Amino acid sequence: MNDLLAGLQSAIGLILHLDHDLVEISLRSLQVTISAVLISAAIGLPFGAWLSVTRFRYRRLAIALLNALMGLPPVVVGLFVYILLSRSGPFGVLDLLFTPTAMIIAQVIIVTPIIASISHQSMRDLWFQYHDLLISIKTTKWQRMKALLWDGRRGLLTATLTGFGRGIGEIGAIMIVGGNIDHLTRVLTTAIALEVGKGDFPLALGLGIVLISMAILINLTIHILSRTEREGTW
């Protein structure tokens, strides 16, 4: 209980005083996760729509594989990206290892299947409703995808938020490819792990509270904006 109270006091103190390290780490966490989520959404949402309107021989297998990829072990993803970006790897010449870019790449691999799978499940139901209409007016596949993406945007927002929640709390892959380097690749999750290892539980709790508050604030903001849009259409 004392550690929890000390953590709360530490978090409040860090926030009120706009601690430089906390602000830097928080901004880097947002930079990495938001960048990864935007890239993942740009890939996953259209892919989910395409998978909903397209029929091909191994479609069921592709959907099953996509759902299985939602459970990718982050440590394995981190190891895979590490090998690719290491000096002896195929992309070692780019010198991306232990940079925020490497962390974004790892998060994209983890988050994209989540967004794609959830968005596909959402748009599959819409496709059942719109199938006859969109086929009858002879729309192209791209037009069908656009219709599903637009009308299913609130469900897709949920998919994107799920991806954000998965990314902001990631530590395994981030630690491997980022290295937790101070002032370069240290984010909230790796900073918490570091402080726990040092035995500084109050600061670790403070950082954890900031991380949770950040995730809740972003989710609430998007929820309010979505609700405002919905009320404006009535």
Automatic annotation (TrEMBL):
Its main location: membrane. Signal peptide: none annotated. One of its GO terms (biological process) is transmembrane transport. Gene3D superfamilies: MetI-like (1.10.3720.10). Keywords: Membrane, Transmembrane, Transmembrane helix. The chain crosses the membrane at residues 30-51, 63-85, 97-118, 155-181, 201-225. It comes from the Bacteria. It is a multi-pass membrane protein. This is ABC transporter permease.
